[in-house]
Amino acid sequence: MNYSEITNKEKLIAKYSSDYSRLKSIIKELPEDAADFMPDIKDAWSIREHYAHLMDAEIRAFLRYTNSILNPGIKLEIGGGDVNTSNKLLKYSTRNIKESLEVIRLLRSIILQHVTEMRDEDMTEYTIQHPDFGRINLKMILSIYTQHVDFHIEYIQRNIDLYLKQKINSQ
Q1: 156 is in which domain, residue-wise?
Q2: Confidence at residue 41, expressed as pLDDT on a 0 to 100 scale
Q3: Number of Cβ within a 10 Å radius of residue 79
Q4: Is the pLDDT at 80 greater than 70, yes or no?
């Protein structure tokens, strides 16, 4: 996936802060069995697995965010790797969606509380060495993770659409 930096601080914060509400609204009316519906598509994940993965990614985002401030320029070798292997080893299929969402909410709340008080120039000065993207600043860190949510919402919505289509066809 290609990520691009959202350079306007206000737009970035608005986008980043809206992700939790978007994810919450998706599961608000979700039937329980839809969470584990698995489309007949190679390497597809259930909605539950997407939420668990997003929670794990949010933990990495938080670590990258804090380390860029505490240890500017540090090389962090966290995350990455084969996501399908991570899914199996970390048993995403057993995770509670609401708990995954709550972790996302809490970590984003902490970051948002801090970043809104930060000067714009500090957001470009604090950096980490990312294993895939090289040296990136705070704006890019937050840009990656808000666009990552967009990426997974597309798959989650695909699963919901396929689930509903299967339900209609089975009646």
Answers
A1: 17-27+46-169
A2: 94
A3: 17
A4: no
41, part of any domain: no
Tell me if the pTM is above 0.90: yes
Q: Starting at the edge strand that comes first in sequence, how are the strands of the sheet with 134-137 ordered?
A: 74-75, 127-130, 134-137
Evaluate whether residue 2 is within a structural domain: no
Look at the chain and report how many structural domains it folds into: 1
- Cβ proximity of 61 and 114 under 8 Å: no
Q: Say which DSSP state 35 is in.
A: G
CATH number of the domain that 100 lies in? 1.20.120.450
What is the rounded CA–CA span in Å between residue 50 and residue 93? 9
Name the strand (E) or helix (H) holding 37: none
- How much of the chain, in percent, has pLDDT values that exceed 70? 98
